[in-house]
Amino acid sequence: MNSRSPATARLNPELLLQILDLPVSFHRCLVPITGSVTAALLLSQAICTAQEADPASNGWFTKSQEEWTGETGLSRCEQETARRVLREAGFMEEQRVGMPAKLWYRVCPERVWRALQDRAAAEAARGP
Asked: How much is the pTM?
């Protein structure tokens, strides 16, 4: 009796590499300050996008829900929750611009930096 299913028998290494595509990585240090893996993932991606943005944009960039999903794998609901967390913490700003309106984002690097410093100070105060 063959224990391999027909689907498993057709999965070869080349197909597996196509399925796996590129990994999604994020800055792990953002998890404690955001309180959420999804918010940390979205903020990491926003930081990367902001770094690539035109300097004349003053840090603002636009990205559709579909683009966020393609880059992070986050669903619409996960994105909305992560965006709310980031807005409330002051790590990211949003504004609707244009007609039809597009959602624009800007990372607040000073606030992120301050939160990381506060976290590091708290860790140091706790000691080993």
From this structure: 0.83
